[in-house]
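Re: weekly structure request thread

Next one in the queue (188 aa):
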Amino acid sequence: MSKASEGKLLDLNAKEVTVVEEKPDQSAALWVRILWSPTAWSLSTLLLLCTIFSILRPDAFLTFFNIRSIAIATSSFLIMGVGGTYVLSAGGLDLSVGSVLVMSGVIGARLMGAIGGESWPTIIVGLVVCLLSGAVAGLVNGVLSSYFRIPALVVTLGTSFAALGLAYVLSGGQDLRTIPDLTVTGNS
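Done, posted below.
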C-alpha cells in the first residue's frame, strides 16, 4: 500500500520508509505556462486598465499630451528598476534607491539655484552633481556591505534615512523651484 502525502509517495510495507518525490507534469504547453505567468497577468491588468480609461475618457486618456506626461513621470522609476534588477540578480538588496533619488534631486536643484541662470551649462552641472551624489551614496552602501560585512538590509535602510534627512535639511522641508525653466519646457 502507498499513501500520497503532499506530493510525496510513502511505501508503508517496506522496512524502511522511503520518500519518492513526484515530478511535476512537464507536458504542459508553453503557451499555458506563459498565460499563467505573473508577467502575463501584470500585462493583462495594464491593458485592461488602459481599455477602461480609454472608454471612460476617450478625449483625455489616449492623447499625445497624456501619454507624454505618463512617460515622463514613469521614466525615473524605469531607470531605478533597471538598476534594482542588477542588484537583486546579484543577490543584493537596496532599500535606499528612492531616498537617494530624492537627495540627489535636492542637491542638484540647490546647486542649480545657487548658480542661477537659464542655460544648458547650469543644467549639465546640476545633472553631473546629481549623478555624483547618487554614486557616492552607492559607494557608501557598497563599502559598508562589502568591506565591513554589515548586512545590506541594515546598510541601505540606514542610508535611506540619512538621505531623506539630508534632503529635508537641504530643502528646509519645502519644494524647490529654483531649477531653470529650460528643464521643464525643453525650449531653448
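Residues 93-188 form one domain. The longest helix spans residues 120-146.
Next request, please.
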